[in-house]
Amino acid sequence: MGCVLGKEDRRSTRDLRHSSRDIRRSSGQSSATVTVAGDVSNVVKVERDATGERETARRHTGDFPGPERRRFRMENQQGWPSWLMAVAGDAIRDWTPRRANTFEKLDKIGQGTYSNVYKARDLLTGKIVALKKVRFDNLEPESVKFMAREILVLSKLDHPNVIKLEGLVTSRMSCSLYLVFEYMEHDLSGLAACQGVKFTEPQIKCYVQQLLSGLEHCHNRGVLHRDIKGSNLLIDNEGILKIADFGLATFYNPSHKQPMTSRVVTLWYRPPELLLGATYYGVGVDLWSAGCILAELLAGKPIMPGRTEVEQLHKIFKLCGSPAEEYWKKSKLPNATLFKPQQPYKRCIAETFKDFPSSSLPLVETLLSIDPDERGTATAALNSEFFTTEPCACEPSSLPKYPPSKEMDVKLRDEEARRQRGLSGKTNTVDGVRRVKVRDRTSRAIPAPEANAEIQANLDRWRVGNQVKAKSKSEKFPPPHQDGAVGHPQDASHKAPVSFGASDLFISSSTSNTKPSGGSAKSAGAVGGTSRRRRTNKDDPQMAPSRNFIRGLKPSSIGLSMDYLFKGRSEVVGSRK
Ligand SMILES: Nc1ncnc2c1ncn2[C@@H]1O[C@H](COP(=O)(O)OP(=O)(O)OP(=O)(O)O)[C@@H](O)[C@H]1O
């Protein structure tokens, strides 16, 4: 069993970080040492170097009796397993690991692309926590890097509307790592999907205000979340919303822009610039997602549930209008040629959402601007008339108490209901076509698995058939090591021109079925065993199909269903019933 030091040690280290900051603020001296932790076995001293730039936290071993001191030294050296230090040293250096056996696992409460999440009891404090177990399948570098990035980012954030990383637990035996979080009973998508739950305007304002406050904090600290969606907005029984899942987050510096991957954000919440392949972007990506969530809460269902990137962009243009000619020229986005529609679309947000409270429309319009620069900032959104017009946001504590309603709870409840109805194991089919329950389809964000997987599969076949040199290049997404925002060169494949017109795709026809897809970073290649399978055509220049090639294919063979494209066209985005 790995690890070592108990909760008190970790807490001490955290405390001392705060305390040393306080010292710097208040004393203005060039160096300081102070004892911060109370109990004798955990006395810790904070030392600050002469410049005040660096804070160092050291356990004051002098206060320990001999054997204790020896134990501490040994544990301190061996606190982290070497395999973990080797792969994520920077991220975990500031943390002291907890022993896995100081937690009692209660239930599995969630499953993500690279993790399982458990409800657990902290046996030292009795507190209920969430343990996010990162799966290091064969030490898959992506899982490790997502985890390392999440830890690094979370240690820079401290806000009531951002989930707090409370500790790390490791076990040398199982080669796994747990992130310890405060336990949150609900998530927004689970709540919204609950039968009978219909949020009032003050409640929606309360949630969105908290979301924007959390985002404002992230952005002010130079962090882009890059996966804002309902299931990543956790809510506790006091009505406090916290932004969670920073596995796709990145640091960015607006005055020193670096290229970043565009393969981020779950499809339904992904802004047009990312769908068009932008590699220079900023806070606008999170604000777009926030706009989708605001409109979703007001409409009572997701507003743009696309199943492929093509369909997603089509839905965006249909609602928000296609960009003006100057935008296409100015943006120089890699996929502009691919997705530029032949006919311009007129913006129709106001008509589509005519039943929304009038004070919400300017904010929806702003956040869903095609041009990211027009989306403003989280601070500006918080100052918008939506929040100053009556009825105002309610107090979080006045929000109703809901039964457990995470996506997983909803899934389990649905399964149970199906079982009760004796339908378990049977597929609900009509004419051989699987009918998706409306609630399944409309109320849950599909975590963007393989974008255009069908196209990909057929392109693969085509490549083999044409003996194209098929040097497999899996879409390793945001391969953090290739994400410029974390100081590495960005995947150059995004810069490759793609030469077929989406407008062609919009008017081709087919009857083939398509699956919801989307291909965000994590889903496209994070977890062992899946990354090699998940690729998208536009990420590999070798696989960029020519216009003639696409035209030459039977529509069904490229997996694009005009059926749904047309359906998408006539589909009303909808307003709250
Ligand atoms: N602190 C928490 N308290 C309660 N439940 C949580 C907590 N953190 C995560 N969960 C649950 O676990 C699920 C998966 O967690 P998370 O999104 O962080 O994992 P992930 O592997 O990054 O997932 P994804 O692939 O969806 O991005 C969440 O949707 C949520 O339901």
From TrEMBL:
InterPro entries: CDK, Kinase-like_dom_sf, Prot_kinase_dom, Protein_kinase_ATP_BS, Ser/Thr_kinase_AS. Residues 103-387 form the Protein kinase domain. PROSITE patterns: PROTEIN_KINASE_ATP, PROTEIN_KINASE_DOM, PROTEIN_KINASE_ST. Residues 506-516 have a biased composition (Polar residues). One of its GO terms (biological process) is positive regulation of transcription elongation by RNA polymerase II. It holds the Pfam family Pkinase. Residues 1-69, 416-452, 467-554 are annotated as: Disordered. ATP binds at residue 132. GO terms for molecular function: ATP binding; RNA polymerase II CTD heptapeptide repeat kinase activity. Keywords: ATP-binding, Kinase, Nucleotide-binding, Serine/threonine-protein kinase, Transferase. Gene3D superfamilies: Phosphorylase Kinase, domain 1 (3.30.200.20), Transferase(Phosphotransferase) domain 1 (1.10.510.10). Residues 1-25, 45-69 have a biased composition (Basic and acidic residues). GO terms for cellular component: cyclin-dependent protein kinase holoenzyme complex; nucleus. Belongs to the protein kinase superfamily. CMGC Ser/Thr protein kinase family. CDC2/CDKX subfamily. This is Protein kinase domain-containing protein. It comes from Acer yangbiense.
